[in-house]
């Protein structure tokens, strides 16, 4: 059974930093993508940063240059380093993992999801 458990959320002032962690278990597929998504109250869930099956990373324009994804395979952990946090980064952050079938696209509509960790940025 696949499980993803996020941690590291909290409250921080604008301009501060947080590092989120996502520990995965029951997921041994080599061809997989992982990513971070977030959802603010009243808004749709949006992608924040992604790591594809070749470990290439990409980010949404809203966080590019401020957020960094990394992975530690020995610990089965995905990280999201968030620097220079802004008020609009306030949201519930979710970790996701998905198996890549044919091709190289990450089919996020088939992803496994964690329960999320709350990030609150204040002025």
Basic shape? globular
* Distance N to C terminus: 41 Å
Summarize model confidence as the mean pLDDT.
94
The assigned structural class equals: mainly beta
Low-confidence stretches: none
DSSP summary, beta strand count:
11
Q: What is the succession of H and E elements?
A: EEEEEEEEEEE
Share in helix: under 10%
Main beta sheet, described?
7 strands, mixed
Strand content: over 45%
Oligomer: single chain
Count of helical segments? 0
Gyration radius, in Å: 14 Å
Could you walk me through the main structural features you see in this protein, from its secondary elements to its overall organization?
There is one protein chain. Helices cover 0% and strands 51% of the residues. The protein contains no helices and eleven strands. The strands form two sheets. Strands 2, 4, 5, 6, 9, 10 and 11 form a seven-stranded mixed β-sheet that branches. It has a four-stranded antiparallel β-sheet with strand order 1-3-8-7, with no helix packed on it. The mean pLDDT is 94.
